[in-house]
Amino acid sequence: MKLGVVIEKDEDGYYVGNVPTLPGCHTQAKSIDELMERIKEAIALYIEVSGIDIGEHREFIGVQFVEVEGC
């Protein structure tokens, strides 16, 4: 199973991973490698606890960036 993960870096230097197709499934770590291990654990726990069928969820397509003036 492959799931998309959005990764951002917060103001404290932590990497934050979010799985858009699994609402509320996210984690953070000091390195990308550690983040990827933690997000795999978070996904497994999410599926175990929720009992969802991944096939029922929307497919993650990608991320687009937009510029907003005045911000």
From TrEMBL:
<dbReference type="InterPro" id="IPR035069">
    <property type="entry name" value="TTHA1013/TTHA0281-like"/>
</dbReference>
<dbReference type="Pfam" id="PF15919">
    <property type="entry name" value="HicB_lk_antitox"/>
</dbReference>
<dbReference type="InterPro" id="IPR031807">
    <property type="entry name" value="HicB-like"/>
</dbReference>
<protein>
    <submittedName>
        <fullName>Uncharacterized protein family UPF0150</fullName>
    </submittedName>
</protein>
<feature type="domain" description="HicB-like antitoxin of toxin-antitoxin system">
    <location>
        <begin position="5"/>
        <end position="50"/>
    </location>
</feature>
<dbReference type="InterPro" id="IPR051404">
    <property type="entry name" value="TA_system_antitoxin"/>
</dbReference>
